[in-house]
Design brief:
With 335 residues, the protein is of the alpha+beta class. It contains five helices and 14 strands.
């Protein structure tokens, strides 16, 4: 009798386990609280910092692991050569501006007075030459003067008239002042000199390496005294904020989520539950593994999504694996 009771009890227990495992032999569905669990990693976001100009590193103010603020001075180059370029550029600007001022101000009164005096002197010489010409002309035919003297008289008159015309034109140029084209060319020369000076000043500013954003120095690639080329990495900075998590959702669960949904991010060994928001869902599907794209593995099709963590702290490290829960995920479609 006891054996029969034990046998009945065993059968009842077995039926209960089977009913639980099969949701009441298919008559009842398991309760779904709607949460969706995903796995991912904290994004590794780094920026390589370097000088835009070449030179010798004079100083590096930070060590690996140092936390820096945007705009903080991190390193400098020896600026002796750049300072010399600035001085040369300043002198070139002064020279160009002086030339432009000279052209715009016109000729000095003393220069014009000298030109007028030369005109008066040339006019007097021309008058004397004209008088000699008029006096000797009647004497040529009678033979009172030689042919050589007459030819010298004519040549002297012509030269005096040409000299007078030359100094008159010179006086006219002084009175007219500089040509507009010359002034425009001088103004362009000033602008060119100023632009060269600004370029030298930009290069001098680029001899100071500043933090592009808040972050942590993860690599100090060069040391003071090293000669670096433009763009060569000197420091590598890890970008701390915003903190992003990269996760993947299966194709079958893609319809359950959308941008803007709130999520909860947790990490192994860390009791804190971080709040986040789905910010981006990739429009491209990826196969896992990527090298297998057969039709019978469509269940392995996944979509990448990016999550913005709203309340990060130093306990979340870049590259760290995390778990993501989407409490408000839409119900999964049942076939």
């Amino acid at each position: 009798m006891n054996r029969r009771r034990i046998a009945i009890l065993v059968v009842l227990v077995a039926l209960g386990i089977a009913a639980f495992a099969t949701s009441g032999f298919g008559l009842f569905k398991a309760r779904d609280d709607g949460a969706l669990a995903l796995n991912g990693n904290v994004d590794i976001r780094e920026v390589d910092l370097g000088f835009r100009v070449n030179g010798r590193i004079a100083s590096i103010a930070v060590e690996e692991g140092a936390k820096v603020k945007q705009g903080q001075l991190l390193a400098t180059l020896d600026a002796a050569t750049l300072d010399s370029r600035i001085a040369q550029a300043d002198a070139r600007v002064s020279q160009a501006e002086a030339q432009l001022a000279k052209l715009r101000n016109g000729n000095r009164a003393q220069d014009i007075a000298q030109a007028r005096a030369r005109v008066a002197a040339a006019a007097a010489v021309a008058q004397d030459a004209d008088r000699d010409y008029a006096r000797r002309q009647p004497l040529v035919e009678p033979g009172a003067i030689s042919r050589d003297i007459w030819e010298q008289t004519v040549a002297s008159r012509d030269k005096a008239r040409a000299d007078l015309q030359q100094v008159q034109q010179a006086l006219s140029l002084l009175n007219a002042g500089s040509r507009k084209e010359d002034i425009d060319a001088a103004a362009a020369d000033v602008r060119s000199a100023i632009a060269a000076r600004q370029g030298a000043a930009t290069d001098l500013g680029d001899a100071r390496l500043l933090a592009s954003t808040d972050g942590t120095v993860v690599t100090r690639a060069r040391e003071p005294g090293a000669i670096v080329q433009p763009g060569e990495t000197v420091l590598t900075l890890a970008i701390l904020r915003p903190l992003r998590v990269r996760a993947y959702v299966a194709e079958s669960d893609l319809s359950r989520i959308g941008p803007g949904m709130e999520v909860v991010v947790t990490a192994d060994g860390n009791p804190k539950r971080y709040k986040g928001t789905i910010g981006y869902i990739s429009p491209r599907a990826e196969f896992t593994p990527k090298t297998v794209e057969t039709e019978n593995l469509r269940t392995d099709l996944v979509y990448q999504l990016r999550i913005i963590v709203n309340d990060p702290d130093d306990a979340l490290r870049q590259g760290q694996p995390v778990s993501v829960s989407v409490p408000g995920a839409r119900p999964k479609h049942k076939d």
